[in-house]
Specification:
The structure is a single chain. This protein is α/β, with parallel strands linked by helices. It is 25% helix and 21% strand. Helix 8 (261-275) links the parallel strand 14 and strand 15 (281-285). Bound molecules: iron/sulfur cluster. The site of iron/sulfur cluster has 12 residues, from loops.
Amino acid sequence: MVINRRQFLKAIGTCTALSFLNSDYALSSDKPNDGLREVSFYKKLQDGVVQCLICPKHCRIVNQGRGYCGNKLNDNGFYYSLVYSRPCAINIDPIEKKPFYHFLPGVQTYSLATAGCNFSCKFCQNWHISQAKPEEIKYFNLSPTDIVEEAKTKKIPVIAFTYGEPIVFYEYMYDIAQLARKHGIHSVMVSNGFINKEPFQKLCAQLSAVKIDLKGFTEEFYQKYCNGSLQAVLDTLLLLKELKIHFEIVVLVIPTLNDNAKEIKEMCRWIKNDLGDDVPVHFSRFCPMYKLTNLPVTAVKTLENIYQTARESGLKFVYLGNVATHYAESTYCPSCQKVLIKRVGYHIEENLLKNSNKCPDCSTIITGIWNIEKK
Ligand code: SF4
């Protein structure tokens, strides 16, 4: 089935699931493709080789070759993104699904992704797109203007770069975020944090909030299970703090691999001492996935022990994820323990921070962006 662009834009208004996974249609566009977009950060080496400077992998790419993330091409010494204006996943999701709990609770996000990733996590939940080459999956032709116009038309106040790894579609993300800001729309990034300082600083000027997946707390884990590096991610978190951008951290707790009590304690201590005690930290339940189907689902008891450890370490806003109806989904005042935002899954049952950033009982200031007007 082929649908035109107008039909597609209408259809996604009601879309709530990752439709690309079982989509059986291709899309046509009423606009020609704008052509390939040159990568923003790279340098030319000798003999037509280029070196990508977007992320710490610093790939060196020969003519007609691609970097590790697979969605950029060296064409005769010029390095191009193959996914600019080519999202492969678009959905409208609640912000809680990203998850952001201290950023505009209850709003909808216009969420999108392209193919490719600079990690290859063995537990990836979106491996169908993150580990795919652009030509291996279906995509849509949607320019930054199309995306922003659509968010505006549907009155969606936040665009979220998510599902896969937005760092590898840097140029598309940057242009959307820059345009969105001009139209009063927020942009948020959900990322592994594996990015170089210069591109990240430039990008942050256009973002309202960032969620970082802290996948473990040892270099060994990052190398063995993600093909990445811990230190680069910690550096990104430190930079976020320095830039004063709202950010939250998610840790996917994988049985036997990163749930060691000592490691969790060290992680919490580092977050508190180096980032601050008011950073929201979400410990999320693992479900067997991709290359780790041999492991069990994380036990709720393990998550509750981690919650306790994190609170005892001094972190004020600790959450458990993928455990619907659990008390640790809600936001509590760190001073008087009043329930400030009552959540059930992605649903907000009560929000006492709608009009104020203070606990109504004891006036403690609660870190976050609670009001749509404040960007
Ligand atoms: S963004 Fe992709 S091509 Fe560039 S350095 Fe990272 S993995 Fe390599």
